[in-house]
Amino acid sequence: MTTPEPLLTLTNAHVHLGTEDVLCGVDMAVQPGQVVTLVGPNGAGKTTLIRAALGLVPLSEGQVSRRPGLRIGYMPQRLFVEDTLPLSVRRFLRLGQPDGDIRSALEDVGALECLDKPFSRLSGGEMQRVLLARALLRQPDLLVLDEPVQGVDISGQIEFYRLIGQIREQRGCGVLMVSHDLHLVMAATDLVICLNRHVCCEGHPSSVSQDPAYHDLFGTSAAATLAVYHHHHDHHHAVDGHVEPATEEDAHG
Fold first, then answer.
1. Between β-strands 8-17 and 61-66, what pairing exists: parallel, antiparallel or unpaired?
2. The CATH number, out of the four listed (3.90.1150.10, 3.30.70.260, 3.30.497.10, 3.40.50.300), of the domain defined by the range 1-71+179-253
3. What is the pTM (predicted TM-score) of this model?
């Protein structure tokens, strides 16, 4: 069985801004149906890496490759709309998306009741779901989410990451997202890349949490917190990204 082509690949990616090395020799790939999470401290280059992957920031060295015809849905870190701007959620989602099924997208993210609300009056959790719905309108092969739970309380964050996992399973899309907190995204993540301008370590969340490089960035207490968030998988992902029920062999490791 042949291995499917990655959705997105960065090879030896460098970004220099002036005299500053923002990214140094980063290798990364996102496979179909895979959730990849970038974690790291402020200033680690996470958003720059996302923007480079999208072609919004040019690489100083290295290469970025996207699968031909790749459809990307992007959810930015933040979006500001003037309170005085008379813009409903319905109208916001229509901007640049004239053919998308906005009711279906809002329903998929659990925010259909926001359809006719003023966009500027949304709560933090509602705003994130509406922005996610907008990304889904593109019927993406790859969802790119930059700090998707910023401004959302802990219970809302956990629920949002659960939603991301459901969307991945229902749509079979890959997901690349940025987070500060590995312990909150553990249940929804297949691969963690720990970034501090370069790749410090990478792997499954449970293995990354034990890596000395992770402890150096987040402290030894961070690993203990992860125990609360271990996730039991009742499925696995085929090489083409499709979700398949777990076998007895999977269940026993």
1. antiparallel
2. 3.40.50.300
3. 0.80
